[in-house]
Amino acid sequence: MSQLPKPDTVQLRAKYPDVFERPASARLATPAMIVALLAIFVLGLVDLDFSPSKLISGVSQLGWITMMMIPPNPGSSFPLYMQALGETLSIALLGTTLAAVLALPVSLLAARNIIPSNLIRFPVRRFLDSIRGVDTLIWALVWINVVGLGPFAGVLAIMVSDFGAFGKLFSEAIEAADRKQVEGIRASGGNALHEIRFGLLPQVLPVIAGQVLYFIESNTRSATIIGIVGAGGIGLQLAEQIRVLEWQKVSFLILMILIAVAAIDFISGKLRFAIIGQRAVA
Amino acid sequence: MATAVSILPAQQLAVLNEAYRQAVARKRLKAMLAAAAFCAVLLVAAVGAEVNLHTLFSYFGNFVGYFDRILTLDSGARVWTSPAEWFWGWKKWLRMLGETLLISYVGTLIGAVLAFALNFLAAQNTSPSAWLRFTVRRLLEFARTVPGIVFALIFVIAFGLGPMAGVLAIAIHSTGALGKLFAEIVENADMKPVEGIRSTGASWLSCMRFAVLPQVLTGYASYALLRFEINVREASVMGFVGAGGIGQEFVVAIRKFYYSDVSAILVTIIVTVFIIDISTGWLRARLFGKETRR
Q1: Which residues contact B220 (CB under 8 A, 6 or more apart)?
Q2: Chain B contact set for A62 (CB, 8 A)
Q3: CB A132 within 8 A of CB A164
Q4: Closest Cα to residue A111, out of A181, A176, A201, A205?
Q5: Which residues, given as ranges, of chain A have pLDDT below 70?
Q6: Helical pair B130-145 and B163-188, crossing angle rounded to 10 deg
Q7: 3-state secondary structure of A41
Q8: Which of A41, A225, A241 to mutate to test the interface with B (most CBs of B within 10 A)?
Q9: Nearest CB neighbour to B48, from listed A87, A141, A224
């Protein structure tokens, strides 16, 4: 077996200095980052009152709670829970639809290819951003103060927080649309509204429909939790049963939520594929 | 220059027009039916959710009035005329805000580490056995589907009131979400390096460490940062159920009708979320930028 010639390391070092002698800053960057991450982590543990004894007693409590949850049992309140679940689904559907209807015109104002002027677009975008920055639960609390406890506050909370998200997503879909069809409409003598209706909407509607369906899906989850602050639906029941420590009912409610979410996932997945299927394949 | 547009003879045109009309009519009918079905579902939903347009319109003034009130100080002046009075509790709020950020940081880190430990078991191409993959996947799905705040409600009872319950709730929810995303990255990884390492006789652990990990690490970091951003929002409401953070202050202000405090805390939260969004976005761009430059 022939030996390879011994590499001339001196020459190689001279030729590729950045491989052999990386500067100290580059070599130390990764360990320094890890140390910093860990330091903040430890600081956090201390500041947030983590203690091993608390953790152990909590875990044993949790184990006990889990034992109490089995088997899931709704007692005599099953019809009530089904009604609450229906309420939750209604909240998600209505809130998302209203948000989409309201967001469509606003998203036109936030799209660069419709409103070239920064003067309008910028405030509209910041407005949408700040709505999105506030959590659905916070909106629920605000609406409860306005229209009172109940599912209606939940609908309005989901509507407002989705309005911000939709405004952004729709305007991005509109910006991604093809100019050519709009120009075609203009060339045949259409006015600005015609351009939007016949040139733009046919392109963006399938995208928007897909996004709306996806949000209905994810809002089923949000709608389950806004009940915790009193805005109706199954979350209200869940929070109540947790507070009175009826663990079998709690596990039954969680199971119901999981099944409902899975069912909605399945249905909206099918629908989404039916609406934008060809587009996704093409 | 005038160009003649050729027009077909009337007979031929009538046939074509008829076919077109039929095709369009069928499509319209379908769309109308779908719209009608959707409206019917909406109507049922409206009854189910106790929507009352009358309440909405009669209370809509309240909504505007509410914002009017939260933007007014006790003295009757607008809040922005006297920022010192508006943000009178800034020391306490900033501390709670810091606590919120710490909750989401610690929760994200624990979640990311757990997800990291589990994701190789959940990915199709690296999982050592099918039943292990199935179990881990179901576990992650459970952690992801149950909302974080429900975990928080239960943990508050098990671990007592305070930020610890919030951290653990966020950690579990993040484990579920990140575990799925991480596993998807691994499934998209190139398997040739794995074969190379395995052919040298390496164990499963070494295969993961030297073949898969170098490919997926930036993706992991990017998703973890994104999750941190989401968790900051999540942590800001954990206080609603007593699990620490600024949510506690907020819910007190809202329930006790301390109007100007509500707007002050809202502004604090919004600004923080903005700053976190922008800085993680910048950090992610840097991480990915480094990757593409190589």
Answers
A1: B112, B116, B182, B185
A2: 154-155, 158-159
A3: yes
A4: A176
A5: 1-2, 276-282
A6: 130
A7: helix
A8: A225
A9: A87
If you average pLDDT over residues B39-54, what whole number do you get? 78
| Degrees, nearest 5: CA angle B4-B8-B9 | 125
pLDDT: which is higher, B175 or A116 = B175
- Which residue reads 């939750």 in tokens? A88
- Classify B72 as helix, strand or coil: strand
pLDDT single digits (tens) A43-102 = 888 888 788 888 888 888 888 888 888 888 777 888 888 888 888 888 888 889 889 999
Number of residues written out for chain A? 282
A58 touches chain B (CB under 8 A): yes
With cut-offs at 50, 70 and 90, classify the pLDDT of residue B171.
Answer: very high
Contact criterion met (CB < 8 Å) for A40 and B266? no
* Contact across the interface for B102 and A44, Cβ inside 8 Å: yes
At how many degrees (to 10) do helices B213-238 and B246-255 cross? 30
Question: Using the beta-carbon criterion (under 8 Å), do B106 and A48 form an inter-chain contact?
Answer: yes
**A39: number of Cβ within 10 Å:** 10
Cα–Cα separations (whole angstroms), residue A50 to A64, B92, B172, B242:
21, 21, 16, 16
Nearest CA in chain A to B110: A41
